[in-house]
């Protein structure tokens, strides 16, 4: 229900421009002690069932992704299951998925696998990603908090399809962000610089692995684009967003690779044409001779090699200095054991810079990581140039998804799918036949990159009939913003018997209303925000019976709220009537 403006936080902290221009954020949702991860999950699930008149019996699997669990044993899923058991449905597979911000994606992949398996009974799967991102009052990351929840339906006949064969994953061990038990507070222990480095490593590793898969897919239908990197194969981009500037940096990296490969292709064309002209002139000086063998070779080059894909220039990036996979010579090992300095065509660098800003040997790589030589002198300027050159691409491919993320803040497991809901609302039927690049990340480290494809009203989505499929999202931020669900095409049991009707992307866009929900949030002052955070902290510190200090009116009508924590530490929730009565 509430949000605080980043510009107001800047004034309070005496750092004008740091959160709005530096981080790229607009506002941040926050909750009082009346709401927590359980109430958010309950709210978004109930709204999905109500808004689309979906029977609780239509759900056969319930998976929750979160890193804000309030109990080390009892799952958030078990709380949400009460909504279904109350209606007589106690047959719900699935539990919580925990790995930092990656839990929502793990829940999604598990649900898709269930629908594809022999265990599927014809019902839908429900995925809920919910989190409250909160940092201590003296933390430099205080402005990168947020809260929200997203629910997605997975099943047959959906408007969004997971592109078959276009999914890659990166995993590693790191201790740059974690929440150790014993402290009694929700605040994480973290190293922000290392988290950004691992985010970048994971992104570039996934992009390098996905590029040949997309080239293979695009080669059959889009001649030529496979020679220009990953970005031209895709129409939209949504990424996990701790803050917007990080999303922009990653997109700028993809854009730089695309520009570099286009330059390489153009240079090949120029050299070959010049060589052909020279050979033709030479052949013309011998009017009575047969065409030389060299002319045939040039002709073959002109008709084939000039349009062949240029090798991907994204190499697996270097590991942090203290990483266990980093060798004594300064190079790092990739997941397949090869040295990153030997991968791709960048000589160990993690990024090809934009045209006109190529760093010399030993210069830093834009975005914070450095080449093997290790200098950092020109990083900021090169980064600024990259972002400037990629601005048009950002507006075309990423701004629609990032809109809600900039205004709600970091919602951890829900962040990526909040961006998807924002994209669906703004693009609607324009997503039909389009590909969306999705990048999920969780500290520790786990990341995946995969592709969604919009399905047309006639059911067409991709040339391949083996595509995996997922429904659209329903989201809740700071008290609840509902969007629409969906499902997917496959020859399996008919879910019509349990009350589901397919919706098109255009129909979903008109029902999402995420923009209105965010714009209607009440703006609190920085003092209001800190007071609410103090209430949440007090609730965590309490070891006895606890009753929230804030009023029930602090949650939106129709939302669930914490009623009390009893003497046994059992949490009890109620729902505020939809008419706003208390």
Protein model, in words:
The chain is an alpha/beta fold. It is built from 15 helices and 17 strands. A hairpin with a 3-residue loop joins strand 11 and strand 12. The chain is globular and about 100 Å long.
Briefly summarize what is shown.
The chain has 582 residues and is α/β, with parallel strands linked by helices.
Question: Secondary structure elements and their pairing?
Answer:
Blueprint: E1 2-5, H1 6-13, H2 18-22, E2 27-30, H3 37-51, E3 59-65, H4 76-85, E4 96-97, H5 103-116, E5 124-133, E6 146-154, E7 160-171, E8 177-178, E9 189-190, H6 192-219, E10 236-239, H7 244-284, H8 293-303, H9 379-389, H10 391-397, H11 399-408, H12 415-427, E11 435-442, E12 446-454, E13 468-470, E14 473-476, H13 505-512, H14 514-519, E15 522-524, H15 526-541, E16 560-565, E17 571-575
Parallel strand pairs: 1-15, 3-4, 3-5, 10-11
Antiparallel strand pairs: 1-2, 5-6, 6-14, 7-12, 7-13, 8-9, 11-12, 16-17
Q: Class by helix and strand content?
A: alpha/beta
Shape verdict: globular
The share of residues in extended strands comes to 15-25%
Helix content: 25-40%
Per DSSP, the total helix count is 15
- Count the beta strands: 17
Strand order of the largest sheet: 4-3-5-6-14
Average per-residue pLDDT, rounded, comes to 80
Question: How far is the N terminus from the C terminus?
Answer: 16 Å
Rounded to an integer, what's the Rg over CA atoms? 26 Å
Biggest β-sheet description: 5 strands, mixed
**What low-confidence regions span 5 or more consecutive residues with pLDDT below 50?**
220-226, 288-318, 324-377, 462-467, 477-492
């Amino acid at each position: 229900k509430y949000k605080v403006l980043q510009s107001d936080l800047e004034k309070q902290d005496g750092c004008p421009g740091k959160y709005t221009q530096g981080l790229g954020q607009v506002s941040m949702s926050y909750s009082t002690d009346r709401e927590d991860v359980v109430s958010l999950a309950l709210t978004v699930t109930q709204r999905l069932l109500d808004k689309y008149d979906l029977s609780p019996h239509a759900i056969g699997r319930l998976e929750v992704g979160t890193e804000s669990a309030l109990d080390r044993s009892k799952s958030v899923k078990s709380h949400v299951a009460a909504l279904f058991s109350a209606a007589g449905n106690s047959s719900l597979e699935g539990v919580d998925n925990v790995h930092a911000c990656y839990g929502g994606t793990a829940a999604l992949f598990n649900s898709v696998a269930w629908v594809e398996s022999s265990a599927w009974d014809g019902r839908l799967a429900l995925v809920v990603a919910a989190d409250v991102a909160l940092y201590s009052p003296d933390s430099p990351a205080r402005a990168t908090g947020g809260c929200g929840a997203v629910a997605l339906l997975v099943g047959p006949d959906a408007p969004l399809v997971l592109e078959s064969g276009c999914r890659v994953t990166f995993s590693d061990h790191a201790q740059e962000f974690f929440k150790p038990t014993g402290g009694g507070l929700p605040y994480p222990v973290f190293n922000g610089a290392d988290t950004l480095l691992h985010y970048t490593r994971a992104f570039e590793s996934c992009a390098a692995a996905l590029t040949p898969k997309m080239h293979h897919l695009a080669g059959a239908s889009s001649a030529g684009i496979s020679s220009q990197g990953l970005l031209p194969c895709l129409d939209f981009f949504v990424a996990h967003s701790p803050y917007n500037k990080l999303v922009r940096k990653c997109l700028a990296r993809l854009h730089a690779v695309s520009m570099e490969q286009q330059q390489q292709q153009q240079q090949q064309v120029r050299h070959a044409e010049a060589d052909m002209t020279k050979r033709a002139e030479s052949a013309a000086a011998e009017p009575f001779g047969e065409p030389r063998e060299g002319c045939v070779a040039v002709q073959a080059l002109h008709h084939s090699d000039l349009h062949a894909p240029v090798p991907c220039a994204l190499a697996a990036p270097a590991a942090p200095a203290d990483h266990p996979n980093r060798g004594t010579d300064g190079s790092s090992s990739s997941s397949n054991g090869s040295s990153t300095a030997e991968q791709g065509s960048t000589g160990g660098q993690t990024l090809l810079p934009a045209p006109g800003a190529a760093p010399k040997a030993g210069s830093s790589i834009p975005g914070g990581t450095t080449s093997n030589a290790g200098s950092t002198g020109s990083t900021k300027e090169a980064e600024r140039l990259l972002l400037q050159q990629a601005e048009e691409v950002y507006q075309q491919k990423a701004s629609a998804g990032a809109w809600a993320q900039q205004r709600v803040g970091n919602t951890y497991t829900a962040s990526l799918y909040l961006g998807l809901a924002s994209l669906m609302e703004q693009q609607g039927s324009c997503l039909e036949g389009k590909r969306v690049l999705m990048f999920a990340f969780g500290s520790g480290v786990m990341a995946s990159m995969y592709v969604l494809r919009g399905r047309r009203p006639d059911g067409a989505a991709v040339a391949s009939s083996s595509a995996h499929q997922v429904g659209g999202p329903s989201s809740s931020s700071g008290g609840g913003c509902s969007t629409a669900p969906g499902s997917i095409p496959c020859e399996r049991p008919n879910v019509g018997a349990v009350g589901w009707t397919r919706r098109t992307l255009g129909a979903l866009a008109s029902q999402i209303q995420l923009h209105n929900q965010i714009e209607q949030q009440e703006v609190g002052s920085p003092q209001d925000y800190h007071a609410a955070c103090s209430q949440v902290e007090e609730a965590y510190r309490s070891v006895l019976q606890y009753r929230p200090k804030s009023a029930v009116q602090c949650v939106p009508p129709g939302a669930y709220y914490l009623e009390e924590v009893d003497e046994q530490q059992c949490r009890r929730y109620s729902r505020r009537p939809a008419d706003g009565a208390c």
